[in-house]
Amino acid sequence: MNNLLGFIFLIAMYFGLREASNCWDQKVEIQNRLGPGRILKVGCSDSPNTTHWLKFNENYLLSSGQRRQNIFANKKRRQDIWVCHIVHWPTKQPYAYDLMAELGSRLPPCIHGFRSWIAKVDGIYYEHNKIKPGYRLLGWKKVDTNTIEN
């Protein structure tokens, strides 16, 4: 009987501590810093039929509360990955990139924090926990106008 009570206590502690951990409170943000008058088109796997058009200085936020809608869950590493297609048109030629924005593990040890992907004219920058300055991670790729839906 004592072993059963000890086992139940351990199970309760495991689930209680898991709920108390803030691994579930994680956010990924996509920011438009392309310049005044420039629009950033964002389409992510959290809502595959929805396109977001971000004006200059607008943000699009993906949070851990949207995990149930995410179709790209990595079961082995217990993390969720969103694939976001971002496009901008500095000229008639569109520039695009497919980002893989991931939230860290849902179970401890987890990578806490707020991740920002910042679209600028010269490339895509990354910040973690709003530690500035972000560093340039990716360059824009020219894409064929026929492959982009306007």
UniProtKB/TrEMBL annotation:
Q: Which UniProt keywords apply?
A: Secreted, Self-incompatibility, Signal
Q: What is the name attached to this protein's record?
A: Uncharacterized protein
- Which organism's genome codes for this protein? Arabidopsis lyrata subsp. lyrata (Lyre-leaved rock-cress)
The UniProt entry's sequence similarity note says: Belongs to the plant self-incompatibility (S1) protein family.
Give the chief site where it resides: secreted
Location comes to:
Secreted
Q: Which Pfam families match?
A: Self-incomp_S1
Q: Does the keyword Ribonucleoprotein apply?
A: no
Q: Which GO terms describe its biological process?
A: rejection of self pollen
**Secretion signal, residue range per the UniProt entry:** 1-20
> What GO cellular component is one of the record's annotations?
extracellular region
